[in-house]
Task: inverse folding
């Protein structure tokens, strides 16, 4: 299922492909990710985001598809901070992944 994560104020515009069965999400090449990464005590994923972005992001643009085991990990990668991927990513119809799953609308 094609999904989007857009945050105009932070200049984020990402496209992904969510696999409902495996719950994996692939952030697609050409997606624009945040300029900043949140380095806080509460958020422990900053170093992982740094590592994942190395070699896959240039000038805040994803240079090749990158897969994650969950929608939230993919959302963290895109936003640079702690993000609930099930509500941040939205399908073409404007529903969140969580809403799509709850409504049983899982066609690709």
Result:
């Amino acid at each position: 299922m094609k999904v989007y994560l857009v945050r105009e104020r932070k200049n984020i515009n990402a496209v992904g492909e969510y696999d409902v069965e495996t719950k994996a999400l692939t952030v697609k090449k050409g997606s624009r990710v945040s300029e900043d990464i949140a380095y806080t005590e509460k958020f422990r994923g900053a170093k992982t985001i740094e590592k994942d972005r190395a070699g896959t992001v240039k000038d805040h643009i994803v240079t090749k598809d990158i897969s994650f085991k969950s929608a939230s990990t993919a959302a963290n990668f895109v936003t640079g901070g702690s993000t609930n991927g099930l509500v941040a990513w939205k399908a073409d119809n404007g529903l969140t992944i969580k809403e799509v799953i709850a409504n049983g609308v899982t066609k690709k």
Notes: The longest strand covers residues 12-18. The beta strands are 2-7, 12-18, 25-27, 57-58, 61-62, 66-68, 90-91. The first helix runs from residue 46 to 53. The two ends are 4 Å apart (CA to CA).
